[in-house]
Amino acid sequence: MLNSNFEKSSTYFTRARKVIPGGVNSPVRAFRSVGMNPLYIQRGKGSRIFDVDGNEYIDYVCSWGPLILGHADPRILKRLTEYAHLGTSFGANTEIEIKMAELITQIYPSIELVRMVNSGTEATMSALRLARGYTGKSKIIKFEGCYHGHGDSFLIKAGSGLLTFGIPGSPGVTEHTAQDTLIARFNDIESVEKLVDSNKSEIAAIILEPIMGNAGVIPPRRNFLKDLRDLTKAENIILIFDEVITGFRVALGGAQELYGIDPDITCLGKIIGGGLPVGAFGGKRKYMEQLAPEGPVYQAGTLSGNPLAMAAGYETLSVLRKDNIYPALEKKSKLLEEGFKENMKKLHLNFSLNRVGSMMSLFFTDQKVHDFNTAVTSNTKLFSMYFQKMLENGIYIAPSQFEASFVSTAHDHKDIEKTIEANYLSLRGLL
Ligand SMILES: *Cc1c(COP(=O)(O)O)cnc(C)c1O
Q1: Are both 171 and 262 inside the same structural domain?
Q2: Residues within 6 Å of ligand 1 by CB
Q3: Nearest to 117 by CA among 9, 272, 334
Q4: Among 19, 20, 42, 96, which one is most buried in terms of CB atoms within 10 A?
Q5: How far, in Å, from the CA of 66 to the mean position of ligand 1?
Q6: What is the mean pLDDT of the chain?
Q7: Annotated catalytic, 59?
C-alpha cells in the first residue's frame, strides 16, 4: 500500500541534518540526484520494505546487494539470536571464523587463505597494501567507473556515489596517492596495455569489478578478463578481482566461476555478511602468507571475524549452497528483463538494459552501455522522473542511474509481475 505521503521521513531528515553530515551515513542515501528527500525505513520482510509513513515497496536495492535472501529471513534471524546469546564479541578466536574460511576456500578455488574484515572498503584497501608489499611496486591500474570503496587510492574516476554526484576525485587524497593510480577503460584491453608499456615494472596490481556494478551493470566483453589474466601473468602484475557485489551473486563462485578466470586476489563483501558488516580478501597462499603475523604486511581489526557477523554470513552462504538458488534466481531475473523490454517495445522506447544473473540496470540511453563513457550518455533527469514514478507505483530501486537493481530469492512471481506493470506505468508516465 502506498499513500505517497513522506511526511514522517521528511521530519526525520530535518532532524538528521542537524547532527549527521548531509543527514546520512553514506552519500547515495540522501536521494539528492533524484531530487527528493530520502525515505526512512521502519522494517523489511522478504521482498518488501516499509517506510516510517506506512508505505510498502517491493525492494530491489536489498541493502545495495547483501540481502540475496531478502529481508529478515527466519533462518538468519534464528542463527543470529543463537549466537547473540553467547556474547557479541570477544576479540579472540571463535570456531565460526574457521567454518566461514573453510566454506569460502571450498567454493573459490583461487582462494587458499582468506582474512575477514568489516567492509568491502577494508577488503580492497588491504588487498592493495598486500599487493604492494608483495611486489615492492607502487602503481596500480583501476578502471574508469569501477568503485572499490572509499580508500584513497580508489577515489579517482570512481563509480557509485562519486559518479552519481559527478565527483571526479576527492579532496583529501594527496597528489602523490593519486599519481600512483592509473586509469584504464573497461572492456578496452589496449588501454591497459598502453599503461603497462609506459610504466614498465612499476605496476603492483590491476584491480577491477569483473562485472561492473557501480556505474550501473556492465558485463565484460568476451575475452576481456582472459586478456587481462594473460597480460598480468606475463608482466608479473597481481590481478585483483573486486567481487564485493558479484561474489555469491552471479554464481556461488562469483564472476570468476561464471567466466572461468582465476584472479590472484579476490575481495568479497556484501552477501558474505548476510546483512551484517563483513568484508574479506583472499588468494593464493604465497600472497596471503605475507600478512602479519605470518609476514610483514600489517593488517588488523578489533571486530574482524565478529561472531554475530560470521553467523549471519555463514548461514547465508550455507543456504545459497545447499539450496542452489541460482537457476531460480536467473529465471525470475530473466522474466523481469523480458518484461521491461516488452514494455519498451510497446511504448516505442529503446533504452539500454544490461543484466547478469540477478543484477540489472536500465540505462536511459539508446546507446549500448559497455563502459563508463557509454554509461554517462544516460539521461539522468529522465531517470530521476522514472525513479519517483516507480516509488509511486510501490517499487523501490536505487536512487541513482548508476547502480544495480538486485533480485533476491524472496521476490516471487507476483512481485516480478507487479514490477513489470509498475515499469510500464512509470515509463508511460515519462512520455
Ligand atoms: C560496495 C562496494 C565496495 C565497498 O564496500 P563497503 O562495504 O561499502 O565498504 C567495494 N567494491 C565494490 C565493487 C562494491 O560494490
Answers
A1: yes
A2: 119-121, 124, 147-149, 209, 213-214, 242, 244-245, 269, 279
A3: 272
A4: 96
A5: 10
A6: 96
A7: no
